[in-house]
């Protein structure tokens, strides 16, 4: 039987598991009767004991579903009374079947008394109490699982909202810098270059809008997106901007958060290239070390201010990147900012996912 069907139909799941349990109980009795040789017909009594257990435990389920919402005290008292009453019924059924199918000499010579009819009630009650404990144990476990799933779902939704906020934070920050650059080109009379910059900006924004903030992309896709951005910056800085890529081909299929490198390169533009008349260079490095993907953005600018440790980083882009990686990977990542002598090196180590 399909397990998904059972999980989706609670009533069917109950009847299957309940019947399986009582049948296993009957088989255990049968094995015991084979070891301690019983009278002929005793196997029919065992069958009655199993079937009566299956049928009499069904009303317990209906009662316990009501008791479950009333609290522990109602469960304890209600289940004890219910098990005792049903144990009386079950004992009477089993004893009657014994007298009918086994027909022992005792049964034929003695008129059954009231106590004889209900003998074995305590055993049946203990059996039903064990059944009840198992039922409530399963219910309690399911409730814990549901609460755990609800907590995980709430945490995932909060994480998703935070990631989307962080990812979308990049767009206005990037737009502000790029539109300022285009405005400068227009004021300098470089209308043709400004128009080309607007076209490339349009391509880049179309890419960012098409990408799901929660979805990871291959490093090859990330580098293609970075080239869209660098196409705009190349128009802005011209020969002042020198770009280098040192990317190991093996890691091009590795998965990374979308637009992970762009804010780091943008920081390099802002702090290492734009302030200097001669411009500078930016190098993007990617490689694999063991089970880690190593990414780095290195510039040849002025580096960190004197006395700075690089813990907080520089610019919105780096702070945003730190937070995104923290949300996505927890403690399974590292990011460091160090002086490259000259310049600054921002290096990330992420779990290798292909």
CATH architectural arrangement of the largest domain: 2-Layer Sandwich
Distance between the termini: 36 Å
The backbone outline, from C-alpha atoms, is rod-shaped
Structural class estimated from helices and strands: alpha+beta
Spatial order of strands in the largest sheet: 2-4-5-7-6
CATH topology of the largest domain: Heat Shock Protein 90
- For the record, the count of structural domains works out to 2
Percentage of residues in strands: 5-15%
What is the N-to-C order of secondary-structure elements (H for helix, E for strand)? HHHHHHHHEHEEHEEHEE
User: Rg to the nearest angstrom?
Assistant: 37 Å
* Chain-averaged pLDDT: 81
Look at the structure and name the CATH superfamily of the largest domain.
Answer: Histidine kinase-like ATPase, C-terminal domain
Tally of separate helices? 11
Low-confidence stretches: none
Fraction of residues in helix: 55-70%
Got a strand count?
A: 7
Main sheet attributes: strand count, strand direction, barrel closure? 5 strands, mixed
Task: Assign the CATH class of the largest domain.
Answer: Alpha Beta
